[in-house]
Amino acid sequence: MYKHLQERYAPRPPVNIATLVKMKSEGEKITCITAYDASFATLVDDAGVDVVLVGDSLGMVIQGHDTTVPVTLSDIIYHCRAVVRGLYRPFLLADMPFMTYASKEQALDNAVRLMQEGGAKMVKLEGGAGQVDIVEFLASHDIAVCAHLGLKPQSVHKVGGFRVQGREEAAAEQMMRDAKALQGAGADIVLLECIPAKLGAEITMALEVPVIGIGAGAQTDGQILVLYDILDVTSGRKPKFSKNFMTGNASPLEAVKAYAQAVKSGTYPGPEHCF
Ligand code: KIV
After folding, report:
1. Cα dihedral 133, 137, 138, 142 sign
2. What mean pLDDT do residues 92-101 have?
3. Measured in angstroms, how far is the CA atom of residue 63 from the centroid of ligand 1?
């Protein structure tokens, strides 16, 4: 994918975890998006996005499943290998699929595969207090980890649907405790999905590590959305927090640029995207 040419002319060096921590401390919003192939990876890189996630959302938007549960480690590795060829500047984050981190040893083996075979720089796993030991084990092996809290799509069958989390006081307090425990265990980033904006702001204030939100309000350190949602490719009802950036933009590249600029300037998410 002409990566050597991109490197030669790249005006800004590749993003790493230190870049993201600096952005948090300087109040610069972090822009993140999903990608699943090399062409879109190049496009989102050109659009100026900071972090790219090969998310298990690919189970729904690429494979056509109803949930992310059927996605396998091999699926994520396959898509990571494609995405990494298209990226120069963004930091590459990969999802650990359902049941690929049920024990510390399994989590380590699979995180290593995502990094060595897929080219991921950080792995993301869903979970609260129950995942603290696993995050600690990965961190003790110098693996960068993003802990995903709030709505955890891999738990959809246990929870009974995709719905806003942390609305009740006790649940909000538990999420705050979990976020702090995961940071204490060595999580480098916390991702919050589908929670009240007030709770998103409180957790972001309480943590030193960068906090990325999706439907978690405007005060998180950064935002992430599913690429196909912002390009209006996904059919059916879109989540409230999502926005179609193709409106008013002539091409996918312009739409992703508009998303990145809206996150940086704080115009996305608006009140209509928040809980
Ligand atoms: O799988 C995914 O794309 C995700 C984002 C929605 C955060 O986890």
Report:
1. positive
2. 98
3. 15
